[in-house]
Amino acid sequence: MNLRLASQRLDDIAPDPEPDWSFDALVSELNALENKLDATSSTQPLHIHKTTSRLNLSHGKEIEKSKRFVLRAPEYETESEDEDDKALVVASTGKHFTCDDLYLSDSDDSDVDPAFEVQPYLMNKVGEVEGALIELTHEHQLRVTDEVRNKISALETALLNESQNSLSSLLRVEKYKETRQELDKKFDTQYQRQIAEALDNHLTAVQRDRELRSQIEERKIRNDAAYEEAKRKVALQEEKQQQEKAKAEAEAKHKAEEVKQAALEAERKAATEAKTKAAMEAEKRTAAEAERRAEKDLVENSKMVTSGVTLNTTSSLLNTEAKESGYVYRAAASALNIEHGRLQKLKELCDRNQAVRSSSNQDYTRHESHISRNIRQIRGIRDNVRSKASEIIKIFNDRQCPQTFSVEIFVKKVVSSCSSPASAPFAIAYVIVLITSQVPYVMDIFLAELHKACLYTVPKHMVYKKTIFQSQEAYFRSIGYREEDEKLESTEDYLKRLESYMKVYGALVQTEIPNIQNLHGLQEGWAWLARFLNSLPANQYTAVSLNAFLQVAGYALFRRYKSQFLKMLNIVSNNFLVDLKSRNVPESTKIVANIQAYIEDKMFLQVPEGKNLQSNTLSSAKEP
């Protein structure tokens, strides 16, 4: 049997001798094969004979060959294992495998280490089956080795590819991260820009809406003022027509009576007519004289200011002493008449309200608190004063509360708030002008209440006479000193309150609002100044009043009257201040210095503080 026949497979293991194996690899594979055979073979166990001899192979020596095929495998003893040396020699001649003795040359030219010298025998002889098994085992070991190597190579390749893929993935992740960060930055910048644009658009829209509302409110106020003015004109025209009609009827009736009496009393006609004509002429002369005297002061003031004539405050021609309720006042007759008319209107309104209160149990506390709250919230801001004026007008028009009640409460609360030096006189005056433009009679009621609180707004001065007043305290009470806990306030506190009242009055006469008529405008301020210089004496009270009025209204008076106002200031400097200095009152020194500094420094050229109402809380805009 040849070698092909001897290499038949046994248990799926084919022998494939490999003479070029290393000894360590051969030992390792043999151990693995033995372990596998021990574990799987149960019917006919195969044994591999172990040898204890070592084979020392010599380079350059030839082994004699016999008639049989000889397979040699040197056995080595490893230091790490205790197993015997293993050798496998497979020889095949026909149907049998034999191992002959090895021939090793004893030449001295061998380079092999003495430890590998040839032993007297290589391995024990084995049978044919065992040789085939060895070859099959060797072939299986080669195949397993190749598979292991291929798997290791595949694993290394897969590990390398996985490493490269991981590195590539990391690079892609880093690149994606950087790209994402850049995109986030761009998106953040774009989002911030959008927010800024949206905020800007919102603020612009809010500002535009505020301006639109302000324009609508102003247009509404102008329309309401125009409507009220038209109503007032129509009412005046109707009243005038009624008066003319009544006058015509009265004249017709009078003529009819005269004709009737002339027919009935023909005999006494001449004497009766003569007496009647004389009486009528006397009455007409008396009335005309009274009217001329009432207007005399203002006419003479204008003439004297225009011609530059110096006023004499002690002259009986320019001063009028009037007795009222037992007191003696220094004032112009026209001013007293106007004051009397205003006080009469206030008295009638209060009497009417008192009659309603006594006949009705309705409580108007809510309206009073509402008015008080609006007055306390008045500030020097244009939108604020317009809104407060609108709120108060709404209260006046509320049908749940009579308008006379609301007006009485309003004037009393406003005058009470004017007594504080911290009040805003220009803002209060602005509100009063807006309200009186739609409810005109409120102006006279307010001025009457202001005259009661401060007689120098008339202007008039109460003369101190011992025959009238039992003591100076009684006189102080009469001119407006307050009393708390049966003790009069100090003169300093009284003068501060007096100054506050005069500033509000000065702010009222100089307040001008476009398309709205001020019923007590700048011409009334000019008349007040003329009456003041003509009639009132120079003392501490009148000096404080004059200084407060000039500080607030002097700027507007100069713009309107120019050189005539300067002549008025010359009269103040040359007459009023000289007379005040001659009295040698230490308390008047400071106020004299203030008035003199106002004139010399031309402070009337400067806009008074607070005159220009602010458009909002951050910026201010001038009133036309």
From TrEMBL:
Pfam families: GLE1 (PF07817). Its main location: nucleus. GO terms for molecular function: inositol hexakisphosphate binding; phospholipid binding; translation initiation factor binding. Keywords: mRNA transport, Nuclear pore complex, Nucleus, Protein transport, Translocation, Transport. GO terms for cellular component: cytoplasm; nuclear pore cytoplasmic filaments. The keyword Nucleus applies. Residues 238-277 are annotated as: Disordered. Transmembrane segments: none annotated. InterPro entries: GLE1 (IPR012476), GLE1-like_sf (IPR038506). GO terms for biological process: poly(A)+ mRNA export from nucleus; protein transport. It is found in: Nucleus, Nuclear pore complex. Belongs to the GLE1 family. This is mRNA export factor GLE1. It comes from Pisum sativum (Garden pea). The lineage of its organism: Eukaryota, Viridiplantae, Streptophyta, Embryophyta, Tracheophyta.
